[in-house]
Amino acid sequence: MLREFRPTKPFLVGIDSDGCVFDTMEIKHKECFVPMFIKHFGLQAVSRFARAAWEFVNLYSKSRGINRFPALSNTLNFLAARPEVTARAVQVPSTDALDEWLSRETRLSNQALEEEIDRGNAELAPVLAWSREVNQMIEDIVHGVPPFPWVLESLEALMPVADVVVVSQTPTDALQREWSEHRISRYAQIIAGQELGTKTQHLKLVAGNKYEPRHVLMIGDAPSDFKAAKTNSALFYPIVPWQEEQSWARFQQEGLNRFLSDSFAGEYEAALLQEFNATLPDKPAW
Questions:
Q1: How crowded is the C-beta side of 157, counted as CA atoms within 13 Å?
Q2: Which residues, other chains included, contact 124 with Cβ-Cβ below 8 Å and sequence gap of 6+?
Q3: How many whole angstroms separate alpha carbon 191 and alpha carbon 210?
Q4: Of the chain's two ends, which shows fewer C-beta atoms within 10 Å, N or C?
Q5: Where are the beta strands (DSSP E) in the chain?
Q6: Distance between CA 177 and CA 277 in Å, rounded?
Q7: CB-based burial of residue 132 (10 Å sphere; 0-12 exposed, 13-18 middle, 19+ buried)?
Q8: Longest dimension (CA), the chain
Q9: Cβ distance 10 to 211 under 8 Å?
Q10: Could you list the mean pLDDT of each consecutive 10-residue stretch along the chain, which spans 286 residues?
């Protein structure tokens, strides 16, 4: 679908969803991912540290926005290294089987995980059970969260001049549900979730050799969005975490015109990136 896409407008804009279009990062991770993380991996005795590790990896650091499966590996390894966890004699599950699968799989989704387990890799069964229940929790809990202010105005402004593709590591069915709930799915030509590959692969397939240089822009709230853009020689507009409304207002009132007039690259983009990079640390406080 991404590879066969053909431009209908002279510009392309890829947009992340969670934490970028919708203020859903906090509710999804704190109310859905964390409780299931503690439940499925036996972390009740160190729940405070488990929560802190998960939130750091997924919300409050430069790994914000990564796919849930590498996020799970990172969090378990952070947790295993904490002396408070060792002192409580809690056995944090090994990530060896998960890391081996991550090293060779590009479609990091439940479907790909199911296929791997069906081939005999039973060690990953707890990961699949966790991921499935997370999806159930999200479907049950996460609704009624509208787009950030100025998102709709920005999509309306993009519609006449740019093809819009949702570029995300959220499962596609959740993306479609959320974009349809708030009646904005009509603005996107394609809604691409984790089943279609990484964000970098999404942009490569949908944009590669189809648009003029500097006519491709990625809008996102995480370093993984920036990586996807720059790997594909695209421009990047950051939605700064905790400053989302101001970021979208600036895009609608200023950034879009710069993109369309070929005055985005250079000093303007560099200033945006400097502000963005200052908001997220590399290492946890502990």
A1: 17
A2: 97, 98, 101, 113, 116, 117
A3: 18
A4: N
A5: 11-15, 162-167, 190-192, 216-220, 235-238
A6: 31
A7: middle
A8: 60
A9: yes
A10: 95 97 97 98 98 98 96 98 95 97 95 97 98 98 97 97 97 95 96 94 95 95 96 97 97 97 97 95 90
Cβ–Cβ under 8 Å, residues 280 and 64: yes
Q: Residue 163: enclosing H or E segment and its boundaries?
A: strand 162-167
**Residue 78 and residue 150: Cα distance in Å, rounded?**
37
The pair of three-digit structure tokens given for residue 139, joined into one six-digit string: 């479907």
Contact 48, 84 (CB under 8 A): no
Give pTM, 2 decimals: 0.92
Residue from 106, 111, 171, 104 nearest 138 by CA: 171
Structure tokens at 231: 């790997």
Would you mind telling me the total number of residues written for the chain in this entry?
Answer: 286
Q: How far apart are CA 280 and CA 45, in angstroms?
A: 29
Question: CA neighbours within 13 Å on the CB side: how many for 82?
Answer: 23
